[in-house]
Amino acid sequence: MGGMAVLLRRHCRGMMQRSVFGDYETCNIDLAIFLRVNAAPRHFIPNSDCEIPMHRRHVFGLAAGLSGCALAGPALAQDRRATTLRFVPNGSGLATPDPVWTTGAVVGVHAQLIYDVLYGYDQRGLPQPQMVAGHQVSDDGRRWVLTLREGLFFHDGEPVRAADAVQSLARWSRRDTFGQVLYAQVEEVRALDDRRLEFRLKKPFPLLPAALAQNAFIMPERVARTDPFQQITDYTGSGPWRFLRDEWVVGAGSAYARFDRYVPRQEPSDGHAGGKVAHFERVEWRVLPDASTAIGALQNNEVDWVERPLFDLLPRIRRIRNVKLDVFNTLGRIGLVQLNHLYPPFDNPEIRRAALAAISQDDMMAAIVGDEAALGKTGVGYFTEGSPYASREGLGGLFTGNRDIPALKERVRRAGYRGEKVRLLSPADMDVIKAISDVAAATFQSIGLDVEYISMDFGSVLTRRANRNPPDQGGWNAHTTTWTGLGMLSPATNTPLRANGPQAWSGWPDLPELEKLRQEWFDAPDLATQQAVARGIQRAAVDGVPYLPVGQWQEPTALRADLTGLPKASLAAFWNLRRA
């Protein structure tokens, strides 16, 4: 771990009082679904215990809870604790509740509380029927008929109809990477009646259930008619809990009430699939941006679950009675520095290549995991370690070992760098992402780039990174974020790897060779061919540099010891959890 990393690590530790956790990008996909491209079968017929700290960020709970806390005796407080789960989310909590408009993982966690999906991934990574009772596929693979389960309702009491699903999928497909690929093969999607929807395809697409399990949340038709590039304002959901909009305060918290008309599948919970049984009547999100305060609240039984404890605090947590560490996302997280391809200097591929060569994943892991080095992994390319598509192809000496910084600085100069500012967006309230930003800023400066470090809350980052204006007119040049390891397993799900210009993810790379290879991967007849194409994709990514990979790591979660049934899933999930 280099000297730069040590200095940055000390700086990060000094900033511990400013933030709790990093926020992450996500998609819910696991590796087994890609082991066989033709694997799809043809037939599938709240409570505060009156101990809410007097902190200004807890104002959201006081109005609803003061009278109850003032009068409640121990028995009533204990009863409320039995029915309420108190959760500390990443950073500043929920800034926007629309899971189509943004890919922020905190939004995905929220969305899984209030929405359901047609298919969900089990722990093996296989898409399983969720809102659908099953599907039928024509012999030529070009017609799919999906049948909804009986008894599905939205939170306003209206039944879930096939027309709602059709419109929800249409909106989702405009923004989701996997959805774009699926809908490129769609001739028509229509409702046959209230319970059946039909896909007519240009050619067979056996991964259709896997695509629809990719955050394709079902909303009422009227809500799903909202332009996908605009945020929804109606949060009527279809999932196990209702969003209590009146209790949502940005930067303070949010709350959810169990939806009694939700009907779980009659089978055990399994990852993001199976029976989603809501044991808690109420779920409260409490924003505690101070990392030590969050763990103190957990120790004092004021909260039940801290989603992303600071790595520096893990030794302390291990010593606390009645608190445990667990892992729900077994493939961990992957960090990246996203580059804006529209404007100088990163519109210049040679400067992007120099930046890629300057990245030290050793320094990145030192800044992120600190003394918990066993949790970090370096030498990670454009696919998740553990995926059948991960390799060292094209990486050479990138990311680890010595780097010739003076030579890279000269390379930047010869590439025509003219001193343009690199406006780097950094979320002050997301500890992990901020650490990546700190190392990225120092790395850019080391190769002669003029960095303007712009610190803001993560909600503001989400808004600004969607801005395509020039960097000096409200835009940006680089931002940092992380994704679940599940989300970068394959070309189908790796959203930042998409390089189709204006339709690509934030950064908008336009790399035709990368797009050509990506389509070849979808057309590949078997795993061996897919793996060969994936190696070509990584070579093309190293050449075109859509973004800068910074490594992979595991992140424990901290809970009260009496909580059981934590789902093993790519995101924090609340169904199946109960008190022992």
UniProtKB/TrEMBL annotation:
Gene3D superfamilies named among the record's database cross-references: Dipeptide-binding Protein, Domain 3 (3.10.105.10), Periplasmic binding protein-like II (3.40.190.10)
Keyword Signal: yes
InterPro entries (UniProt xref): Peptide/Ni-bd, SBP_5, SBP_5_dom
GO MF terms held by the record: peptide transmembrane transporter activity
Cellular compartment(s): Periplasm
GO CC term, one of those recorded: outer membrane-bounded periplasmic space
Claim: Signal is one of the keywords in the record: yes
Family designation: Belongs to the bacterial solute-binding protein 5 family.
Protein's recorded name: ABC transporter substrate-binding protein
Organism: Rhodovarius crocodyli
